[in-house]
Amino acid sequence: MEIRDFASYTIKRSEKFAEVMSACSTLLKHSPEAAAVRDYLHDRVPNADKTFTFGYFPPNEELKQLLGFVSFEDLEFLNIIYKKYVYDSGQQELVNCGTLGNHNLVMPYKNVYGDIIGFVGRTLLSKEEQKARGVPKYKNTSLLKSLNLFGLYVAKSYILSKDSVIVVEGQMDCITAHLAGYRNVVALGGSAFTKFHFFLLKRYTNNIYLCLDNDEAGRRETKNIIDRYSDFGNISPIALPDCYKDIDECIRKGGDASLLAI
After folding, report:
1. By the 8 A CB rule, do 185 and 144 touch?
2. Could you tell me if 128 and 155 lie in one domain?
3. Residue 3's pLDDT is what?
4. Alpha carbon 229 to chain centroid distance?
5. What is the DSSP string of 177-197?
6. Is the pLDDT of residue 139 over 90?
7. Which domain holds residue 165?
8. Is the same domain home to 39 and 123?
9. What is the DSSP-derived secondary structure letter of residue 241?
10. pLDDT band at 92, cuts 50/70/90?
11. What is the rounded distance in angstroms from the CA atom of residue 115 to the CA atom of residue 120?
12. Which end of the chain is more exposed for a tag (fewer CB within 10 A), N or C?
């Protein structure tokens, strides 16, 4: 695929993702089945502004709600929906399935230019249900998280003005920090920090602060990042109090968020 064709393809995908996100946002506001997602958002981000967008992605048995707004062909083009054979009482039936059917809270994932390159879904299942059913807390549509950082499109002007960036793990960590007034924050969408992430951030600042999760994996990745890249930039850890598992919990439970005032 030539560069011009790839650019056109990226724009087309972004436009279709925007259409789907609009439909999911409408369902979040008006669908009775989205009540649990609305309640969750009210609890987690009660002061949400228009910086970040949320939507409701229906489970497989309710996909007709989404298909009332967006064609099956467009959803299939984005790899958001697919057909699957199921067996019931010995009978074979072809049904529609959504890639985010177990992850009903969805957020758009934008690249540094503001193009929507995919969705991130968050499940509302309990930890016990997640474990029993093998469902991860977060799931995204097909996208290259290793080449992108969640929230960077929103944060880049603040990173430039502050000449610093704070890197967190989860999308909700990033959103909570922004809503608390700390706007130079981006998220990995996991704990893996890649070479591309480093040089992407180096476009905007040489001062990188790491506020990864307060667990073994987060501490290990913090050390790895510092060991790997400290010769090429100013990289420093931000230590959370032991009583909080991540910056999202710290802010929501009234902890001292001023540690982000960098």
Report:
1. no
2. no
3. 65
4. 25
5. HHHTT--SEEE-SSS---HHH
6. yes
7. 147-260
8. yes
9. P
10. confident
11. 14
12. N
